[in-house]
Every structure is written in C-alpha cells, then in structure tokens.
Design goal:
Blueprint (H helix, E strand, L loop, with lengths): L10 E6 L3 E3 L2 E3 L7 E3 L4 E10 L9 E10 L8 E8 L10 E8 L4 E6 L2 E6 L3 E4 L5 E9 L2 E2 L4 E5 L4 E6 L3 E3 L9 E6 L13 E5 L5 E2 L3 E2 L6 E4 L1 E2 L7 E7 L2 E12 L4 H37 L2 H4 L5 E2 L2 E2 L35 E14 L8 E15 L5 E15 L4 E16 L5 E20 L6 E5 L2 E13 L1 E3 L2 E16 L2 E2 L7 E3 L2 E16 L1 E2 L4 E15 L5 E5 L7 E3 L7 E13 L3 E11 L4 E13 L1
Parallel strand pairs: 16-24
Antiparallel strand pairs: 1-3, 1-5, 2-4, 5-6, 7-8, 8-11, 9-10, 9-12, 12-13, 12-14, 15-17, 17-21, 18-23, 19-22, 20-21, 23-24, 25-26, 27-28, 27-45, 28-29, 29-30, 30-31, 31-32, 31-33, 33-35, 34-35, 35-38, 36-37, 37-41, 38-40, 39-40, 40-43, 41-42, 43-44, 44-45
C-alpha cells in the first residue's frame, strides 16, 4: 500500500485494526508505502499520519483513512494420492498395522471404514488397526472446502482358512431344495473361528439356474456360515462355492450330484415289499388262529353232533354226539366209559387237541407311477395245542413259521422273508351259542433284500438284510343261530398289528441305500357273517360254508422313513409311502370234515377285494386230532 502526498512529509505512521502493516513508521524516502496482512475477513480502515516538519508544532501533520472490506478466499478440497499400510502384509491375525493417507490442501478430518463398516474418525492422517482377517480399509479426507473426490483404499491380507464342513458331497433333485444346508467354517491364522464375516462371503454355483440363499450365520456356532440351495433344471453335477470376497481363492467347495432316478423311487422298491411281508406274517397267524377256533365251534355244533346218523359198512351208528367226535375202537364201537354212576354221563368231547395248519398266500401289488409292482408269495405253518374246559371254554398256544418271497417287476429285485412267531389264544362262552375269542401273537422276521439296477441286464446289485419284529392281537365276538342242518354265525372282530423293521445299509458300492427304521401300525374293524350246512356221509360229517366280511382300517400310521445314499451321508430324503386303502373285505368258501376217533380236517379259500392296487388269494389246509 503506497501513500501519495503533496509536499514533502518527513515520515509516515500507519495504523489499522483490521490488518498488520509493516513498517508502521519510516523516513520520507522509505516509508511512503507499507505491506499489510489481513488475518481474517472483515470491514475496517487503515489510517495514515504524514509528518511534514519535525520542528513544527501546529499544522505539521496530515491524515488519511482507507476504508476496506476483506473477504476470505474458498479453500481447495483435499487431494489424496495414496493410502499405505505398515507392515504391508500379509500379516498374522492380531498384528498391529498403521494406515497412513497422503493428502494435500490441509485436510482436517479423516473418516475410515473396514470392509464397508465404520472404523472410526481421526484428525490425523493415520489409523492403527489389528485385523483378524483380510480386510479392506477405506479413508475419506475432508477440510473446510469439502471432501476428497476419490476415497483411497488398501487391503491388509491376513492368511485365513475357509473350509466346507457339512453338506458335501450331496445329492439333489432338479427343482427341489437340497436336503442339507451348505456350511463353511472360517478360521484365522491361529485356528480361531472368525465371526462377523457374513457380509464378506459370496456364494456361487457352476449352474446359473440354481437358486442360492444369502449367506447367514449358523446359530450358536461361531465362525460357521451357511447357504441353502434349490437346484435348477440342469441334471449336471455342479460345484457350489462360498468364498471370501477379499480373498477369492479362499473358498469352501460343495459337490452336488443330481439323482436322475430319485432316492425315494429306489427306496420304495425295498420298503413296500417289506411292509407287506411284515403285516402279512402277523395277520396270517391271526387268521390261522381264528380259523382254528371256528373249527372248534364246528366240532361241538349241535347240527353236527346231534341227530345225524352215519353208516359204516352199511350199519347204523349212534348219534354223532356219542360217536363221531368221541374215540372208538378199531371195530367202530364207542370206547366204554370209565367209572359208574354220574361218571357214566361224562362229557363226550376230548379235552386236549393238537392241530397243524398250512397256508399259501398269493399277493400281487400292481405298479403305479411311484411304485414298482411286485408279486409276494407267503407260506405259513402253524402247530398248536389247546385244552377245552367245562363249559366249552378253550385255552391254547401255537408256534408259527413263515416264509415269503417277493419278486419285483422288470427285474428290479427280490426279497426273501423268514420268521417265526408264538401265539396264545382262548375262547370264552358266556352263554350258549355265543363266544368271545382273543388271540395274541409275537413274531420275529429276517428280510433278505436284493435290488437290481439296469432292468433285464442289471448293471448293479445291492443287498440288505434287516431284522424286524411284530406284535398282533385280535378280539372277536359272535353268536351262532341254528336251523336244522344250517348254522348262521354273524360276528365282529378288531385286529391290531404293530410291525417294526430295523434300520440297515445296503452293500454293493456307490448307489447303495441307507434306510432308517420302519414301523407300521394297523387297527382294523371287521363285521362279517358265515353260513354253513352239515351233511352226513358214510365216513362222518361234511360241513361246507361260505363267509363274507367287510373291513375298515381305523389306523394306518407309518413311521417317517428316511433314505440316503451310503456314499453321500447328507443326501437323506424323507420317503413318501404309498397310501393304504381303508375299506375293503374278504370272501371265503371252504369245508370242514368231521371223522371218527376225534379226527377232523378243513380247507379254506379266501379272496381279498376292494384293496386298491393290491390283490390277494389265500389257501388254508388243516388237520386236528383230539386226545
């Protein structure tokens, strides 16, 4: 700033409240100008005092004032060139690292983030960190003029391990979710689980149509993260990876294969024949006991024992009550009574009886869209004895043997079932012509299963041999109406079966199944009637009969069965079992032959109707001897 004055001042004095000027006082030659500095914006004046004569005391000075307004210029925003880490890495987890940002234009604030999350604000260009995993740090510098246009970033690499811990290998079906989630474990260089990394993990599949969920934490398992997957339409084997975004080569890899013939189809080929064999082995024994008790009633039926005459070698014989069912001599005469008096009127029936009964059951399951058809042939043998009490009450026990063969259609496999059972049974006669029957059965089976893959020319064979047991009970009630040689017997029955098959694994290499235990419960109500006619012959009495019964299954519960490939433990699938018809029935015809010397035999044919895709024919032949 320069002053221009008239005359010749000897010196100058500068004065200001707004600025700092230098020099403030000087000689005429040197001080006609001054330099002022304005430390802040504002409005004010700079004053000048000019001194003309050093010996003058009045009118020797001249003054001037310069009014000025000072404004601050706009400060440029920071310009940052680099963000560095020291040490640069890779570093061990927990190692102290200093981050330094280089900027111009005097930044006054620095905002830091770590993997996108806030990491703090500083007024200096440094930040001290101790990363536990690979982390990308970003900083934005700012001053009064604004923030840097381009934030700076640096990645500090911390060696870590990301590994798949469950869900691989796995088998799936196109369009369906995988049975198990895909789980990885993230650990640091010291082997400690790394938490809070969910947003830093990325899941991808080699099949783009697969649908993957967002990565989520596994509850209560630090360092574990999971993804669920629904497979797309492709049948190709795929790799699904979960990787660290900051370290793309650090991944957990999951191999998923597609089962073109789903596990549940293969499992049903094994399960359904076993189910039928388990239920049949129990109900067959109950049927044998019921048939035998029916024969017992026939032996003491008055249409058989009273008023019927037979002829042997042309000679008339006593009534059947005194002969046909009572022991005789070799000449055909009744055995003499022992004792006298009242003992001479002894019960004409023997107390003890032994019976043997065999039956053949031919069943056929038709194929459906979800079940391969099969034939099942069951052979049963029952040996038993009983004792008849006064009042015609009966108590007995029996041993049962069973063998069943199942052959699946299209050479899909076969099964061989062998087992045994014990039964106790009894009949109570509350009033004449009425009866109450009870039978209890417990059995054990072994199931030898063979499953083929490849049809007529199998390419693989898988074998399994589980064991099982079953409990069954039947309660019956009925009443017999007599009219001459006719007998009408309406009855009702309730049956309960509880069959269990143990869990097992097939053998045979890749493709072998592992099946959980199976349990089947059935409660069936039956209402039926039987009509029979007694005919005298030269050798005894022949009693043909016909029977019809209708059945209703009030309980058909099946325990949930899970199947998976042995080679892929995480491939488990819940098997949807085929439904069971609840209403069906039986038609039966047969005959009982009553002969002298306490011998009787019987034959029965029974046909199952109305049971959906399952057909069944049962043939029974039995022999009884009283003693």
């Amino acid at each position: 700033m320069t002053a221009v004055c008239t005359g010749t001042p000897v010196d100058y004095t500068w004065n200001s409240s707004l600025a700092t000027c230098s020099p403030l006082t000087g000689s005429a030659q040197a001080a006609s100008s001054t330099t002022c500095t304005f430390p802040a914006a504002g409005t004010g004046a700079i004053r000048l005092l000019a001194h003309y004569n050093s010996g003058c005391f009045s009118g020797c000075f001249a003054t001037a004032a310069f009014d000025m307004q000072v404004t601050s210029p706009t400060q440029p925003v920071p310009v940052c060139t680099s963000l560095t880490a020291s040490p640069a890495g890779p570093v061990a987890a927990g190692t102290p690292v200093t981050l330094t940002i280089s900027c111009s234009n005097n930044p006054t604030s620095f905002i830091w983030t770590a993997n996108g999350a806030p990491a703090g604000t500083t007024t200096t260009p440094t930040l001290h960190v101790t990363p536990s995993r690979s982390t990308t740090y970003t900083v934005t510098a700012s001053n009064a003029g604004g923030s840097a246009a381009v934030p700076q970033s640096v990645t500090v690499n911390v060696p870590s391990t990301l590994a798949a811990v469950s869900g691989t290998p796995q088998i799936g079906t196109p369009g369906l979710a995988l049975a198990a989630p895909l789980v990885v474990l993230l650990t640091d260089a010291n082997g400690n689980p790394v938490t809070g990394a969910r947003t830093q993990l990325v899941a991808t599949s080699t099949v783009t149509s697969d649908v993957l969920s967002a990565v989520s934490d596994v509850p209560a398992q630090p360092g574990r993260y999971q993804v669920t997957a629904t497979l797309g339409a492709s049948t190709a084997t795929r790799n699904i990876t979960i990787c660290l975004s900051a370290s793309p080569t650090e991944c957990g890899v999951f191999t998923v294969t597609v089962q073109t013939a789903p596990v549940d189809d293969a499992a049903r080929r094994v399960i359904t024949p076993m189910e039928v064999a388990a239920i049949n082995s129990a109900t067959q024994q109950l049927s044998n006991i019921n048939k035998w008790l029916d024969v017992q009633r026939t032996l003491r039926n008055p249409t058989v024992t009273q008023g019927l005459k037979v002829s042997v070698d042309g000679q008339a014989l006593p009534p059947m009550s005194a002969f046909a069912l009572a022991p005789t001599t070799k000449d055909g005469n009744a055995v003499a009574e022992k004792g006298g008096g009242a003992s001479a009127d002894r019960d004409p029936f023997e107390k003890w009886g032994f019976f043997v009964q065999g039956d053949v059951d031919l069943g056929k399951q038709s194929g459906t869209t979800t079940q391969t058809g099969f034939d099942i042939h069951t052979w049963g043998l029952t040996l038993g004895t009983d004792y008849r009490f006064v009042g015609n009450h009966v108590l007995g026990a029996a041993l049962g043997l069973v063998k069943a063969n199942s052959d699946l259609n299209d050479n899909a496999g076969n099964q061989d079932t062998k087992g045994w059972s014990i039964s106790v049974f009894g009949e109570y006669v509350p009033v004449e012509n009425a009866y109450l029957d009870l039978a209890l059965n417990y059995g054990w089976n072994r199931y030898d299963s063979t499953r083929f893959v490849g049809g007529a020319a199998p390419t693989a064979r898988f074998d399994g041999s589980p064991n099982g047991n079953q409990f069954a009970a039947a309660f019956s009630a009925g009443y017999q109406f007599y009219q001459q040689a006719w007998t009408l017997n309406p009855y009702g029955r309730i049956e309960y079966v509880n069959a269990k098959i143990d869990s097992f694994q097939e053998t045979g290499g890749f493709g072998a199944l592992e099946l959980s235990s199976q349990r089947y419960k059935r409660t069936v109500l039956t209402a039926g009637g039987q009509v029979q006619y007694a005919m005298s012959t030269s050798w005894g009495v022949l009693v043909p009969y016909a029977r019809a019964e209708f059945q209703f299954a009030t309980q058909t519960s099946n325990q949930q069965v899970t199947a998976q490939l042995v080679a892929i433990p995480a491939s488990g699938q819940i098997i949807q079992l085929n439904g069971v018809d609840k209403q069906y029935g039986n038609l039966a015809v047969g005959a009982t032959a009553v002969m002298p010397r306490g011998v009787s035999g019987y034959f029965n044919y029974q046909y199952l109707f109305g049971n959906g895709q399952f057909n069944d024919n049962r043939f029974t032949l039995g022999l009884r001897v009283d003693f």
